[in-house]
């Protein structure tokens, strides 16, 4: 939300009464147990269906230390990264959940080491200045100064070193891809033209801006991964960290490096399970776990629109906000009674011109904003404002601590119809998709060739 939108008094934290319409778990897929599943003929492994395992192998018993191509990962490395994740989510995990997280963090640290090592083969090194600059930006994302962020990390059992290690891995891998992968990705003019033609033909159809977390699951892990996905959704819905944070730390898809961002896609471009889910989602909603081939997906709908048509959420509004505050010590019953009275008062409004007069009768505050976009409002309010007529007001929203308020629509400037993207934009998007695919393949190759010794 921009500076002008901020005048409305932390709207993002004031929609508790409407939150149930904005975030929900949809399309719950039941857990599936697959017994005695024969491997496909094309695996090339020739694994017998009836086999005997000699020895007792339990991957959950591994100690969280490893040597990756002579680079040592210590238990401290794992513990500090785990501490950062749990602190950001503000959650206490059960012992079994901690064990699963520990193994997942270890795999991520191994990937980071491989990425940094591979970048060095291309003479790519991230300097201390670059690490410090990125560290400052991360601290700002946590609304802290660098020194405050260092103290926060130490208090949570993590460290500046752990944070910079993650930054180094991401920067090194991005730079490696730009140097060794992107130059060899080519997109032809005919491909671009074909996409532009399809966009023109798809004009008016629904398009979704989605973020995704993908968790792979073999048949014997289905129930466990499903339960992990449900727990992850519960943490996302607490709102302690953005969806992209969870995607970056937990997703196994190639989009993990871009916070799980799938960009703008149409339902037909998605697997049927995801396309059907997206069509039923509201902006700001989290849906899952959705059973897909090979595992489960969790979707977050950032925005939606119709191809090459004006997006109603880009309309700029002129608004007046009327707020009543509750005295300290107000009980829930008293707050509910006054909110009901406030709702009755709202029905007496006769357009924006009457807001100040009505507000004076109930000792309410009035704030005005003449240039806020619908998409700058919290998701539940966006759905209301899209259909609100000039002179109408929203239902009351808020909480006893910060007051209850309503927004009155004084005017609306609708956005112009969208235009076809340029050829260069289409080409750039195609190139990025192919870079992501090659990056995923490159990382698989590094894992396959790595010498990893667990201790």
Automatic annotation (TrEMBL):
Name of the molecule in the record: Parvulin-like PPIase
Chain segments annotated as coiled-coil in the UniProt record: none
Signal peptide (from-to): 1-19
Gene3D superfamilies: 3.10.50.40, Porin chaperone SurA, peptide-binding domain
Pfam families named among the record's database cross-references: Rotamase (PF00639), SurA_N (PF09312)
Domain PpiC: 205-303
Database matches in SUPFAM superfamilies: FKBP-like, Triger factor/SurA peptide-binding domain-like
Keywords: Chaperone, Isomerase, Periplasm, Rotamase, Signal
Keyword Transport: no
Gene name of the record: surA
A GO molecular-function descriptor: peptidyl-prolyl cis-trans isomerase activity
């Amino acid at each position: 939300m921009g500076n002008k939108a901020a005048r409305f008094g932390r709207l993002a934290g004031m929609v508790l009464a409407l939150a149930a319409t904005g975030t929900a778990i949809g399309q719950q897929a039941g857990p599936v147990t697959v017994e005695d599943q024969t491997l496909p003929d094309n695996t090339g492994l020739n694994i017998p269906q009836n086999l005997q395992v000699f020895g007792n192998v339990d991957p959950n018993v591994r100690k969280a230390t490893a040597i990756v191509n002579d680079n040592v990962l210590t238990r401290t490395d794992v513990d500090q990264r785990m501490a950062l994740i749990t602190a950001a989510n503000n959650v206490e995990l059960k012992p079994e959940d901690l064990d699963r997280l520990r193994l997942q963090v270890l795999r991520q640290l191994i990937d980071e080491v491989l990425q940094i090592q591979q970048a060095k083969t291309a003479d790519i090194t991230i300097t201390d200045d670059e690490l410090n600059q990125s560290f400052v930006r991360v601290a700002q994302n946590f609304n802290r100064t660098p020194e405050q962020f260092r103290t926060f990390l130490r208090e949570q059992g993590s460290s500046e070193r752990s944070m910079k290690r993650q930054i180094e891995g991401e920067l090194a891998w991005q730079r490696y891809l730009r140097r060794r992968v992107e130059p060899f990705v080519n997109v032809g003019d005919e491909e671009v033209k074909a996409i532009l033609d399809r966009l023109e033909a798809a004009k008016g159809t629904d398009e979704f801006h989605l973020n995704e977390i993908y968790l792979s699951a073999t048949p014997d892990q289905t129930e466990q991964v499903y339960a992990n996905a449900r727990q992850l959704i519960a943490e996302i819905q607490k709102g302690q960290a953005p969806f992209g944070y969870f995607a970056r730390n937990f997703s196994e898809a190639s989009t993990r490096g871009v916070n799980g961002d799938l960009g703008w896609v149409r339902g037909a471009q998605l697997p049927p399970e995801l396309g059907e889910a997206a069509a039923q989602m509201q902006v700001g909603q989290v849906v899952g776990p959705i059973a897909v081939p090979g595992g489960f997906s969790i979707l977050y709908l950032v925005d939606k629109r119709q191809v090459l048509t004006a997006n109603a959420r880009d309309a700029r509004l002129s608004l007046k906000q009327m707020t009543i505050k509750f005295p300290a010590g107000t009980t829930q019953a008293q707050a509910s009674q006054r909110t009901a009275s406030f709702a009755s008062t709202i029905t007496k409004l006769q357009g924006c011109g009457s807001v100040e007069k009505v507000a004076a009768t109930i000792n309410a505050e009035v704030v005005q904003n003449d240039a806020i976009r619908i998409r700058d409002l919290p998701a539940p309010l966006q759905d209301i404002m899209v259909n609100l007529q000039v002179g109408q007001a929203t239902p009351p929203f808020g909480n006893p601590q910060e007051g209850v308020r309503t927004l009155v629509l004084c005017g609306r400037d609708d956005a112009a119809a969208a235009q076809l993207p340029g050829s260069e934009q289409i080409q750039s998007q195609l190139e990025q998709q192919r870079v992501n695919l090659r990056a995923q393949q490159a990382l698989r190759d590094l894992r396959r060739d790595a010498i990893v010794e667990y201790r």
